[in-house]
């Protein structure tokens, strides 16, 4: 009979998946990708695409409606003018895990400029 610690270790090994949405939306991974490719990875879908797949934001069901996908690619308006004026901006969730969307996002341009916000657009860090 295996001990609890052995079961926990094997469960942890089995639960790690480098292609899980948690790992795929790691802020560093996504920021580096956007800087290099000037666009989001293919596993990002816009809010309207997610809704067409059955996503209901209030239910936090993105992982059921669109497995392996994260929200990103919608235009960010910069209404509060906290980012430089004159650019077209896009947003994407980072550090996402299934359930309700949290506050972590990147905002980026097609030139590969990226800003990180961890407080839902209240403040930004250029990356």
Automatic annotation (TrEMBL):
Keyword match Hydrolase: yes
Compartments in which it is found: Secreted
Keyword annotations of the record: Hydrolase, Nuclease, Secreted
GO CC list: extracellular region
InterPro entries: Barnase, N1-like, Ribonuclease/ribotoxin
Biased composition (Low complexity): 1-14
Protein known as: Ribonuclease
Source organism (scientific name): bioreactor metagenome
């Amino acid at each position: 009979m295996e001990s609890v610690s052995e079961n926990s270790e094997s469960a942890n090994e089995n639960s790690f998946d480098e292609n899980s949405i948690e790992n795929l939306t790691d802020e560093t991974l996504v920021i580096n990708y956007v800087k290099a490719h000037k666009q989001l990875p293919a596993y990002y879908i816009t809010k309207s695409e997610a809704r067409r797949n059955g996503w209901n934001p209030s239910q936090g069901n993105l992982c059921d409606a669109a497995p392996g996908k994260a929200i990103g690619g919608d235009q960010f308006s910069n209404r509060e003018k906290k980012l430089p004026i004159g650019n077209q901006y896009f947003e994407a969730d980072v550090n996402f895990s299934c359930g309700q969307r949290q506050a972590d996002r990147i905002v980026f341009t097609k030139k590969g400029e990226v800003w990180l916000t961890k407080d839902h657009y209240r403040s930004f860090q250029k990356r």
